[in-house]
Design goal:
Number of strands: 7
Number of helices: 3
Shape: globular
Bound molecules: coenzyme A
CATH topology of one domain: Aminopeptidase
CATH architecture of one domain: 3-Layer(aba) Sandwich
Largest sheet: 4 strands, antiparallel
Oligomer: single chain
Length: about 140
């Protein structure tokens, strides 16, 4: 499993994302449950990568958005590869490659697969107000 950074050619103005890669992300994350919705915000700093398997098949995308100097996770696994523990493999790959020690994540409570993936992967809740519809997690690289 490896990264391929999005190509800077054929870019969407201001976003530095290749149109083909954005189209790929939209095709696997059509409901915008939080996966890559941030990419519409041109004022955010981010790094984003497709994830490829050993045959160079795209199996998802992962990235970080920098908010107040903290890296926040953005992740989407291709539906064909979900429920196979790819979540933690993507996260470990990115944290190692980008030398990220602490990663943060905001998850909407209705996004049950994401909540489950965070919990079983060892993410710690750092903010969970019953009145709010989201949870903040943090994760330390081992
Ligand atoms: C969230 C996401 C990244 C998880 O990736 P993944 O590789 O499938 O995650 P995992 O395989 O590690 O875990 C998924 C868990 O959700 C569970 N799950 C999946 N669909 C579910 C559903 N409809 N209801 C309840 N649980 C569900 C799986 O059973 C698994 O839990 P288990 O191992 O305890 O059985 C993936 O679902 C995705 O890309 N979603 C769309 C984009 C998105 O929401 N990104 C996250 C934004 S915060």
């Amino acid at each position: 499993m490896k990264f391929k950074q999005f190509l800077n050619e054929d870019v969407i103005d201001g976003l530095k994302l290749g149109k083909a890669d954005m189209a790929y992300i939209k095709s696997i994350d059509p409901e915008d449950l939080g996966g890559f919705g941030w990419a519409k915000r041109k004022d955010y700093k981010y790094e984003v990568y497709t994830v490829l398997d050993s045959n160079d098949t795209k199996i998802g995308a992962i990235g970080i958005t920098i908010i107040g100097n903290f890296p926040f996770l953005q992740i989407v696994v291709d539906p064909k590869f979900r429920n196979q523990n790819m979540f933690l493999r993507f996260v470990n790959l990115m944290m190692k490659d980008l030398s990220i020690k602490t990663l943060f994540s905001k998850v909407f409570k209705v996004n049950v697969p994401s909540v489950k993936a965070h919990m079983k992967s060892g993410f710690k809740e750092v903010y969970n107000d019953p009145q709010k519809d989201f949870i903040y997690y943090s994760f330390e690289r081992s």
